[in-house]
Design a protein that fits this description.
Number of helices: 4
Number of strands: 10
Protein name: Ribosomal large subunit pseudouridine synthase D
CATH topology: Pseudouridine synthase
Structural class: alpha+beta
Strand content: 25-35%
CATH architecture: 2-Layer Sandwich
Organism: Lacipirellula limnantheis
Order of helices and strands: EEHEHEEEEEHEEH
Oligomer: single chain
CATH class: Alpha Beta
Shape: globular
Distance between the termini: 23 Å
EC number: 5.4.99.23
Helix content: 10-25%
Keywords: Isomerase
Domain Pseudouridine synthase RsuA/RluA-like: 12-164
Radius of gyration: 18 Å
């Protein structure tokens, strides 16, 4: 069952569960497949009917949160342009290991996506494949096992939040790929299906057909309850 956060005209915003691919090769379940099934059912189309679905952006498999889909080409193009022009507002919540100081700041690095691998690394500025990566954070709360951060991305690089945090000793909790030593979610799950404590909390954009401002907030998944965040701050 899709957790629908916003549904208007050609725009659908869904709260993506962790452990599910945004897109996948044929034969593998994905959020894209589930959203197409949703539209087929709503529009009374057969199960094998072709359905156009635009994906202006993606979330990593272990990440949860708000993601927008477009039902027709024009809407997809206009939303994609907003992402390209960085007029989209996005914020993430991350729970990371260690005490983060200062409590507000900017992380700047040069990143490289390793060839043929879904993994990024910090490299020197003069690396031939280096891409500048910038994010802004503020600490919402510090606890005994780590810090709860609100993050805004200035750039959108592969695994950017995950590698920038990990390179500073602040791996996202549960993210064993980047060195987290703390468990998160159901330990019985296959490693590929396990969540990490990274959530696309807020998404803001202009409706591609009406130009009206849209602001969507995605509730946290239940896995975050184990972090014992202050209830008055979660909202």
């Amino acid at each position: 069952m899709l957790d629908i956060l916003y549904d208007d005209g050609p725009c659908l915003v869904v709260n993506k569960p962790s452990g599910l691919l945004t897109q996948a090769p044929a034969g593998i379940d994905s959020l894209e497949i589930q959203v197409k099934q949703f539209f087929r059912a709503r529009e009374g189309k057969p199960a094998d009917a072709n359905v156009y679905l635009g994906l202006p952006h993606r979330l990593d498999r272990p990440v949860s949160g708000a993601i927008v889909f477009a039902r027709h080409v024009r809407a997809a193009q206009r939303l994609s342009k907003q992402f390209e022009d960085r007029t989209i507002s996005k914020s993430y919540w991350a729970f990371v290991e260690g005490i983060v100081t200062p409590e507000e700041g900017t992380w700047r690095d040069f990143l490289h996506k390793r060839h043929g691998m879904a993994q990024a690394e910090v490299v020197a500025e003069d690396h031939p494949a280096a891409k500048h990566a910038v994010l802004h954070y503020r600490v919402l709360w510090q606890g005994p096992i780590g810090a709860w951060l609100e993050i805004e991305l200035e750039t959108g690089r592969t695994h950017q939040i995950r590698i920038q945090g990990a390179s500073r000793g602040h791996a996202v909790v549960g993210d064993s790929q980047y060195g987290s030593v703390l468990p998160f979610g159901d330990p019985a799950l296959d490693e590929r299906d396990r969540p990490i404590a990274l959530h696309a909390r807020q998404l803001g954009f202009r409706h591609p057909m009406t130009n009206e401002s849209v602001e969507v907030a995605a509730p946290l998944p239940s896995t975050w309850e184990a972090l014992h965040l202050p209830r008055e701050l979660v909202g």
